[in-house]
Amino acid sequence: MANVVWLQGGACSGNTMSFLNAQEPTVVELVTDFGINILWHPSIGLEIGEQVTDLLNDCLAGRQQLDILVYEGSIIKGPNNTGTMNFFCDRPMKDWVADLAKVAGYVVAIGDCATWGGIPAVPPNPSESTGMQFHKKEKGGFLGANYKSKGGLPVINIPGCPAHPDWITQILVAISTGRIKDVLIDEFHRPKTFFTDFVQTGCTNAISFAQKVDAHFGKRGGCLFYEVGCRGPMTRASCNRILWNRQSSKTRANHPCLGCTEPGFPHHDLVKGSVFKSLKYLGFLPQDVPSGNSRLGYYMRAGFEKVLGGAEIVLGANREHFETSK
Amino acid sequence: MGTLKELNISPVGRVEGDLDVKVYMEDGVVTRAHTQAAMFRGFEKIMEGKDPQSGLIVTPRICGICGGSHLYCASSALDTAWKTSLPPNALLLRAIGQGTETIQSIPRWFYAIFATDMANKKFANKPLYAEVVKRFSAYVGTSFQTGVTASGRPVEVYALFGGQWPHSSYMVPGGVMCAPTLKDITRAHAIMNQFRNDWLEKVWLGCSIDRYLQVKSWDDLLAWVDENESQRNSDLGLFVRASLEFGMHKFGQGVGKFIAYGTYLHKDHYQKPTIEGRNKALISRSGYFDGKQYHEFDHLKIKEHVSHTWFETVPAAHPWDQPLPTPVPSQNLLSTDFSGKYSWSKAPRYLEMAAEAGPLARVVINADPSHRFGDHQIYDPLFGDILQKLGPSVFTRALARMHEAPRLFTLINDWLGQIDLDGDFYHKPVEIDGKGFGATEAARGALAHWIEVKDGVIKNYQVMAPTTWNVGPNDDEGKSGPIEAALEGTEIEDPHDPVEVGMVARSFDSCLVCTVHAHDQKSGKELSRFKL
Q1: Mutation for testing the A interface, residue in B177, B513, B515 having most A CBs under 10 Å
Q2: Do residues A102 and A238 share a domain?
Q3: Looking at residue A308, which CATH number applies to its domain?
Q4: For residue A34, is pLDDT > 80?
Q5: B88-107 vs B394-418: helix axis angle to the nearest 10?
Q6: Mean pLDDT in residue range A63-69
Q7: How far apart are the C-alpha atoms of B272 and B276, rounded to whole Å?
Q8: What's the average model confidence in pLDDT over B264-269?
Q9: Is the pLDDT at B517 greater than 50, yes or no?
Q10: Were both Cys, which of A139, B109, B176, B408 would link to A145 (CB 3.0–4.6 Å)?
Q11: Do A221 and A157 have their domain in common?
Q12: Which CATH class for the B18-531 domain?
């Protein structure tokens, strides 16, 4: 049993939409079978018989226990730190969040906007948006680097644009079933259970990556890293292990990983040449290299593999690994 | 004090941002209403000076509900700016993405957002109330879980081609990223069939899609309801009977003018994308209906007004000619002066008139007997007839949305069947400077992007969402926006629980959380305050 208040600030509701796609458990099962008591949610809140302002004030006064505060969307501080670009129940939303964070058992930030500012925080950041406890890669954010909720944890970050429904529901279930002690968090406050492996783990193009066979839009097979900016080798997330909408993932659909579970998304702040293209030095050396590699080491290994692969074709080696079929 | 507070028992607010509404009432009737969009993020400003393809990543994140629709616009805007060519497969796969996102939204909107209002105690004395509560109550309603769970199925098809829903960027200028295989197509067919079997025919229609599509007039629809027990007791049958019994066809009229940009560019008619060639290439048509006459759609006849918007005042202008917005200080609802600036939304106007966007606008435009450019375009007279006999209302609007599901299912199935696995999916474009326009019909209505690329970066990017059309504030002449107008004249039975106001706002699927402050017109005293 856990009381949940879910609020949206500078949000697109994408995490809510993703949440509604959840299958094991479904959102309805979360309520009926797992005792998640949704006190309020902007699109699927249960009947509560009180006005929302009263509910929030009851939480603040201790008349209503608030076990989990879920926050979706950026914290809007603009203009000039007033927060008046985002009113909610007659107050700047940021003021509600500051107060509720003091009484909540656990605080869960869902999606990139809530975790580290997301797209609204891309320069020039017109709404002065930031994340709950990070601003891009920098610890601090809105609540400050030292913030801990009553349950003793900092903000639990479930990044992603949007977050996968399983990442959301399973953290809620872990808290409500008393397994929060099993939730280990990394340096960016992400639960390690979902954010230790890389997107490349389980990617169906992994052999093409290893042997440097490039992919292109509208073609079957190949790896998207070198030409179209795939960030699968340097992004921690379980997209290719648990799949999306039970069917696929970006990289399986020939869509480069955008690195949306890492702070800093959208990477390179959308500068010219960074969208669906790999930024390169001298026109052929990728600026971003897979995690766990030095640039020089990666260039040497990749160059060796490319040269060797070319030589093998000349020598008539069988390359059937890379044949694709409709 | 005379100030009463009460929470609307309906569990649904509206997603994406906050909308506040101030309503003035006299003798139980709304005399004036102001809508206030209460959140600003500045997406257009973020894209200025950035990579021309930024919109493909950024704009789907404007709205997690209509992300695929934003992507459809963003890729189309670049197609016209860069003068790309599009293979038929790409047009099909984009239409499938748009179509699956929209058909997903139909049951999700109906059960999670709209129908729970019909279980409001206002209707407790009606004979059908018990059955409505049994089926449509949040979480425990027998159809609620079926409908909400079914809504996740069509976007599984989106994920097969786009990798995930929401927030894929698989539509790119020149085509699509993916090159599906046979198993993707067969799987997509199977998922859609399950959606039909689990919900669309079994729960919603109570008959085959083919039978339902024979309904061409209001009388046909009433006859369809009474044709047999299965149809009469289907969710659609119950919805029609209960709506008429509850009087939902009698309020929420609106401005009576409709705008649709149309969508689903036909695979054979838009391989050379141009703005001029767009109207003729659409499957679901574009147009403007002024209440009497139909007009061919021309995006150059759109202007946006900002005199009541929290942006620096500039003359009303077409999006290409507008500067990127500069925010000015905003207020909360209680301290807002509604004679001045009072919303983050702009006020779009077509030929200087406010117009309603959304499913009702689409089916009204698709009932236009003229302005049809070929057999590939939908002609469906039903809502021409319904508009004449019933007029616009909360019921008409909701019925229009639900009416789209069977036809859209059929179209998606056809498009899947037309994909040529040996054909191209992408033609690499040449990146040039220029102006572009991309548009579609999001589930909740007309959506468009305008782009100007200069020196290889974005100089101007303007997004106009259906919610902008519907919740926009007064224009420069003080004329109301569509939801403002739809609230005016609404009878509020119980001023302490004005469920009618919520139903009007929700019938537009305004995509925002609404706070309604109900004021007595004479005393100005606040009567009640609600979350919708």
Answers
A1: B177
A2: no
A3: 4.10.480.10
A4: yes
A5: 140
A6: 96
A7: 11
A8: 98
A9: no
A10: A139
A11: no
A12: mainly alpha
Q: Does A250 touch chain B (CB under 8 A)?
A: yes
* Long-range CB contact pairs, B494-498, < 8 A, 24+: B494/B122, B495/B25, B495/B28, B495/B520, B495/B527, B495/B528, B496/B4, B496/B6, B496/B527, B496/B528, B497/B6, B497/B8, B497/B9, B497/B120, B497/B121, B497/B122, B497/B528, B497/B530, B498/B23, B498/B528, B498/B530
Residue A219 phi/psi, 5-degree rounding, is: -120, 155
Cβ contacts of A52 on chain B, cutoff 8 Å: 7, 531
Both A135 and A232 in one domain: the answer is no
pLDDT at residue B360 in the model:
98
In this prediction the pTM is 0.95
Q: Quick one: A107 and A152 in the same domain?
A: yes
> Is A165 touching B (CB cutoff 8 A)?
no
Mean pLDDT, rounded, of chain B: 90
- Residues in chain A with CB shorter than 8 Å from the CB of B65 are 12-14, 17
Give the end of a domain, one of A149, A182, A215. Answer: A182
Nearest-CA distance from A272 to chain B in Å? 4
B267: pLDDT strictly greater than 50: yes
Q: Is the ipTM of this complex over 0.90?
A: yes
Total of domains in chain A: 2
Q: How far is CA B247 from CA B8, B122, B317, in A?
A: 20, 11, 40
Any idea which of A150-164, B2-16, B97-111 has the lowest mean pLDDT?
A: B2-16
Amino acid letter, residue A114: A
Counting residues of chain B whose pLDDT is more than 70, the rounded percentage is 92
Interface membership of A14 toward B (CB under 8 Å): yes
pLDDT reported for residue A54: 85
A200 touches chain B (CB under 8 A): no
A173, A242: one domain: no
**What is the average pLDDT across A35-56?**
73
- Distance, in angstroms, between B160 CA and closest chain A CA? 6
Residue of A6, A36, A43 for testing the chain B interface, max B β-carbons within 10 Å: A43
Q: A104: domain range?
A: 2-182
Tell me the per-residue pLDDT of B114-159, one tens digit each, with 9 for 90 and over.
998 898 888 999 999 999 999 998 888 899 989 988 999 999 999 9
Asked whether the beta carbons of residue B51 and residue A16 sit closer than 8 angstroms, the reply is no
CA A317 to chain B, closest CA, distance in angstroms equals 27
Q: CA of B464, closest CA in chain A: separation in Å?
A: 15
Q: Which residue of A has its CA nearest to B142?
A: A28
Q: With cut-offs at 50, 70 and 90, classify the pLDDT of residue B39.
A: confident
Residues A135, A256, single domain; the answer is: no
**Residue A149 maps to a domain:** yes
Tokens of A53: 């302002």
Q: What is the pLDDT of residue B26?
A: 83
Q: Would A61 be classed as within a structural domain? A: yes
Residue A260 C-alpha, separation from nearest chain B C-alpha, in angstroms: 11
Quick check: helix, strand or coil at residue A289?
coil
Counting one residue from A and one from B, how many pairs have CB atoms under 8 Å apart?
277
| A112/A214 same-domain check | no
Is A40 in the same domain as A156? yes
Reported as a single tens digit per residue, the pLDDT across A79-110 is 999 999 988 887 899 999 999 999 999 999 99
Helix (H, G, I), strand (E, B) or coil at A240: helix
* Exposure string for A20-35, b = 16+ CB within 10 A, e = fewer: bbbeebbbbbbbeebe
Q: Is A140 on the interface with B (CB under 8 A)?
A: no
Residue A64, φ and ψ in degrees, nearest 5: -130, 125
User: Within a domain: residue A200?
Assistant: no
Which among A47, A76, A253 is the nearest to B178, CB-wise? A253
Note whether A49 contacts B172, CB cutoff 8 Å: no
d(CA B479, CA B342): 14
Q: Which of B54, B61, B179 sits opposite A275 (nearest CB)?
A: B54
**Mutation test of the interface with chain A: which of B4, B15, B41, B532, choosing the one with the most A Cβ atoms within 10 A?**
B41
Contact between B131 and B155 under an 8 Å Cβ cutoff? The reply is no
